[in-house]
């Protein structure tokens, strides 16, 4: 049953993304889907500086810290702190958590983020 639900969620999400893109593009807007990644170094901060608080974000957390140790997780939290404190940004891994992640490090990250930012 869960597999069928998962397939439905993927199908509906993909359909939605296609419909939104079609609607935007049919309005005459031009959008280079690859442009963001060509300029992006994986950090949200330069984009926030350029576009201001109207730009909201999620992701950008270096998930490699999860495969290291608590000190690496702490460094990653401190790297993200200035942009998190501006608001409108949720720091998390951009994709799946890697198979080499240490689960205790993931839990540690979540707990430290909760304590630091609420």
Strand content: under 5%
Mean pLDDT reading? 82
Tally of strands: 2
Q: What order do the strands of the largest sheet run in, or round the barrel if closed?
A: 1-2
Low-pLDDT segments: 34-39
Number of domains: 2
What is the first-to-last residue Cα distance?
35 Å
Percent of residues in helices = 55-70%
Task: Classify the secondary structure makeup into a structural class.
Answer: mainly alpha
Radius of gyration: 17 Å
What is the overall shape? flat
- The arrangement of helices and strands along the chain is HHHEHEH
- Compute the number of helices: 5
Major beta-sheet overview: 2 strands, parallel
Short description:
The chain has helices spanning 2-26, 35-39, 45-51, 70-86, 103-117, and strands spanning 57-58, 89-90. By secondary structure, it is mainly alpha-helical. It folds into two domains: 1-31; 33-117, no CATH class.
